[in-house]
Amino acid sequence: MITRRELVIALIAAAFAAASTAVVCAHAGQMPVLSSSVFDWKAMTATPTDTGSMRAVIKQPTATLEQLEVHITTLDPGKAPHPPHRHPNEELIIVRQGTVEAQTNGEWKRVGPGSVIFFASNQLHGLRNVGAEAAVYDVVNFKTVATPAATAE
What is the pTM of this model? Predict the structure, then answer.
């Protein structure tokens, strides 16, 4: 037989569980958690930009990340997607084709296909195509509960 005290404890525990579930759903913006998936290059549409084009792949929460964003950029020769900047999320870039320069820790470094660039949270960084052909690179942005707030420039 359940006692009144045990019933009250069970109700409090159930209320906490419901509240934490609501917070997780609200925090994730009601987007479903990404499960194992395949993203076919042929199904991705290139959206023109002022500096080339962009193919969106993913932008949603996963089981361990508040948000995972992946896109593929094609950057025209002599162009930069934007001026050097900073943001709270961490960013990983994998160069597929072309020659780019990445600004990290106050200096520009030139890299080509197969190179990996990591931009840390809230650190000033930039990227530009310094080659004669289009540069193509994969961009992976991730945000967790540990991602800090944005800092002022």
Answer: 0.77
